């Protein structure tokens, strides 16, 4: 078993209209409540960070999955949308939908089209963030090949 700790520090002072910070080994960003949710919208926010984590994890997992499947001349662009709902007095992220666009050579396109559904599933199953939020947040994948 491999264990790794990912460490971040968050700081906040004051009430909901204030701005805090999140700092890790690489990330250093201001955080606040998003403006559409009644905050001041400075920096990023936990919701955006969750969707960013899911999106970046998925694109890395997809790249590795395609590489193992012998698709090496690829270009990936992934757009992700997290949908949150407010019900029973609480906000909850209910879905994250990934929209990966996969560019491959003309020679690889037909082969990838045949194998894509299984490869998308493998990538999702190998993504740590997907595995961590599964059963709490629905993960959807709507890929296209360019």
How many angstroms separate the termini?
Answer: 38 Å
Largest beta-sheet characterization: 4 strands, mixed
Mean pLDDT, nearest integer?
Answer: 96
Q: How big a fraction of the residues is strand?
A: 25-35%
Count of distinct strands: 7
**CATH homologous superfamily grouping of the largest domain:** K homology (KH) domain
The shape, in one word, is elongated
CATH architecture identity of the largest domain: 2-Layer Sandwich
Question: Do you know the CATH topology of the largest domain?
Answer: GMP Synthetase, Chain A, domain 3
Weakly predicted, low-confidence segments? none
Reading the helices and strands in chain order gives: EEEHEEHHEE
Global structural class: alpha/beta
CATH class of the largest domain, named: Alpha Beta
Protein name: Peroxiredoxin
InterPro entries: KH_dom-like_a/b, OsmC-like_firmicutes, OsmC/Ohr_fam, OsmC/Ohrsf, OsmC_Ohr_Peroxiredoxin
Pfam families: OsmC
């Amino acid at each position: 078993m491999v264990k790794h700790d990912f460490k971040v520090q968050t700081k906040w002072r004051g009430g909901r209209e204030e701005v805090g910070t999140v700092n890790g080994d690489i990330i250093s960003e201001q955080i606040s409540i998003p403006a559409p949710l009644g905050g001041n919208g400075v920096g990023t926010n936990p919701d955006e960070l969750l969707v960013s984590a899911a999106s970046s994890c998925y694109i890395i997992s997809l790249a590795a999955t395609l590489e193992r499947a012998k698709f090496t001349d690829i270009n990936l662009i992934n757009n992700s949308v997290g949908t949150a709902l407010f019900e029973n007095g609480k906000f909850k992220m209910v879905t994250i939908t990934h929209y990966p666009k996969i560019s491959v050579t003309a020679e690889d396109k037909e082969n990838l089209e045949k194998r894509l559904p299984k490869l998308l599933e493998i990538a999702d199953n190998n993504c740590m963030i997907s595995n961590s939020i599964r059963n709490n947040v629905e993960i959807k994948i709507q890929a296209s090949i360019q």
